[in-house]
Amino acid sequence: MQTIKQSKGGIEYLIGKLKEGDKIITRVIFWKIPHKTKEDEVALKIGRYEKKGFIFEVPESASPKSELTLGGEEFQALLDFLHENYEPFKLGIKKYIPIDEKLDLENINHLKAIFDNKDKHKVLDFIAKNNILPDELIPGIQYITRVKAINKFEGMLKENLSEHDWQRWFKDNDWVLGSEFVRILDERGIDTDNIADYLMQAYDGFVDIIEIKKPSPDINFWHSVKDHDNYTPSQDLIKAITQSTKYIYEVEREANSIKFLERVGQVKTIKPRCVLIFGRSDNWNDSQKEGYRILNSSYHNLTILTYDHVLSRAKRILQIS
């Protein structure tokens, strides 16, 4: 257990031992220097001493003296130097920019200018060819970005946003839709009358559909009145299901359309499936959870998720609570 002592002059100090041999001992000492006009100052004394008897020690060298005391400002500068430079130096990095709140604004703007390039593929090629980012840093950046996105998602659930806001979030964070989807297609229109929120390329190379309805306190998942003691879908949910199944039907009809295939690219159209994101489930009881399971099982090409299901799945992917 560390014990803070006090000198005869009333100055608090703490002694630590860095290394001890048969004849030489290296010590470090904190001194807390009180001031009347500013905050108390923490000084650091470090020295190498020659043992004389059991408790008496003298500096190993008198000239130059083998002990040094750093004032508060010097000590803080030493801490900053160690914090910024020890790990890069240890790892053998030849050139680096220390990252802290004092990072030069010109350097920050220069970095932003590189990564703000609209041609993202060119940026990625540049990073890869010049080995700018260490391999272990890339997944870390992706993880932090996804955590920030989920925090934003939770914040958005507390606001009354438009469907367009949610469409933009899902487009920027399509990873939450699951690993079965490879990418969002640039084309949204099925035909002149039917435009889905997203047409997706599934991992097997076929077209699937994502349809979202913004969460709103006025839109309920379940009907307000039970039917034979069973929870049944609300009228809003039935309309959304009907629209989703219509999109599935229209995509199937376009399976042999040359114009449609040209618009969606080299993606096949056979037995499309749809994911419908609708409503909230954060306050469901056990019967409603059972009803949801039964409802979903009745569709072979449609999966219904609530916004809370999406949130929960994303947190499981990121392993956050």
Spans of at least 5 consecutive residues whose pLDDT stays below 50 are none
- How many structural domains does the protein architecture include? 3
**Helix share bin:** 25-40%
Number of helical runs? 9
Structural summary, described in words:
The protein is an alpha+beta fold and 321 residues long. It has three domains: 5-86; 101-132, no CATH class; 148-318, Restriction Endonuclease, CATH 3.40.91. A hairpin with a 4-residue loop joins strand 8 (198-202) and strand 9. It is elongated and about 95 Å long. Helix 4 packs antiparallel against helix 9 (307-318). The protein is built from nine helices and eleven strands. 38% of the residues lie in helices and 20% in strands. It has helices at residues 72-91, 105-115, 120-129, 137-157, 163-172, 235-253, 258-264, 286-297, 307-318, and strands spanning 5-6, 12-20, 24-33, 41-52, 56-59, 67-70, 181-184, 198-202, 207-212, 274-277, 302-305. The strands form two sheets. Strands 1, 2, 3, 4, 5 and 6 form a six-stranded antiparallel sheet that branches.
SSE topology:
Layout: E1 5-6, E2 12-20, E3 24-33, E4 41-52, E5 56-59, E6 67-70, H1 72-91, H2 105-115, H3 120-129, H4 137-157, H5 163-172, E7 181-184, E8 198-202, E9 207-212, H6 235-253, H7 258-264, E10 274-277, H8 286-297, E11 302-305, H9 307-318
